[in-house]
Automatic annotation (TrEMBL):
Domain of life: Bacteria
Origin organism lineage: Bacteria, Pseudomonadati, Pseudomonadota, Gammaproteobacteria, Enterobacterales
Name of the encoding gene: grxB
Pfam families, sorted: Glutaredoxin2_C (PF04399), GST_N_3 (PF13417)
GO cellular component: cytosol
PROSITE patterns referenced in this protein's UniProt entry, alphabetically: GLUTAREDOXIN_2 (PS51354), GST_NTER (PS50404)
Protein's name according to its UniProt entry: Glutaredoxin-2
Organism: Cedecea lapagei
GST N-terminal domain segment(s): 1-77
Amino acid sequence: MQLYYYEHCPFCAKVRYFAGLKGIPLTLKIVMADDEETTTRLVGKKVVPVLIKDNGQALAESNDIIHYLDGLDGTPMLTAAPQAETGEWITSLRLFLKYLTYPRFAKTPFAELSTPGARESYYQKETKAIGNLEEKFAQSQTWIQALNAKLNELANLPCISANNTDSLSITDIELFVFLRNASIVKGSIWPQSIEQYLNVRAKRSQLPLYFDIAI
């Protein structure tokens, strides 16, 4: 199966993370940020991720792809009930994490941003979403302080001490992806329990974190 994706896209990371935990091999196909044609041809609109099944059919929307992958082998992994407090923590982080990550993703060497046109397309799209990226980057310290406070809060939640990846909810998948995105932020302070949580799951899923390229 093939997965059309962006490296920086959290929805794509959800699929890659889950496929890695399930041991499902995917052939990864980068879509350039300014490529309007490829996924429109496949599913009728510019969107990632897009999965091409073994029968050639295309499937979009990350949760739909995850549920499809989970049903392939008769041993479902999405069997856990979502934890409300984990979902609430993610919601509380959602907006200001964009302020931290979008400007940093714009400065990274991700393949989908490797041409001037692709990088400009990314800048325009995310500027519409959150405002001027350079201004947001200049305000980083405020948001880093907020992130560090939220990480300390998360360290006390039960989801961080759970080592089981055999039974998951969509919320569990989203938590890993949100934390993975936050690992691009240099100056963030990671409680040991969260760093261990991330490292264990990154190794199991073979989905690398961003600490080495943090900005």
